[in-house]
Amino acid sequence: MIKKILLPSLLLLAACTGSHSYKKAEDAQDAGREFIRASLDGDYEKANFYMYHDSTNQMLLDKWKQDYDRMAQDQRKQYKDADILPINIQTVNDSTTSYTYANTYKKDTTTIKVIRVQGDWLVDLKEILQSRK
Q: Which residue ranges form the domains of the chain, and what is each CATH number?
């Protein structure tokens, strides 16, 4: 009796959460690429999954999302259609990689840091703040 009630309840709960299950990044390049692609596509739930969670990173991602949401539809499409152009991916040490890229729509160069935290590769956006000083 319990199995008949518990299993459907768990399946319903899982279906109602609305969260996607994303594959953990295998390495720094994978984390950087997944984060950048999600950002270009406007998929900020996915970008958030690949981001190191602290207040500064959350603030920066929220700002990116606000800017994206304000864009005209045709500009969003240009970003979605853009290819990632890796410029320089440099291993700093065993837990930090610097990932510099542009995209085919906007040629602006951006550098993010990808860090390994408790075995997971995550994007740390604070590198953007450092490069603007």
A: 24-131 (3.10.450.50)
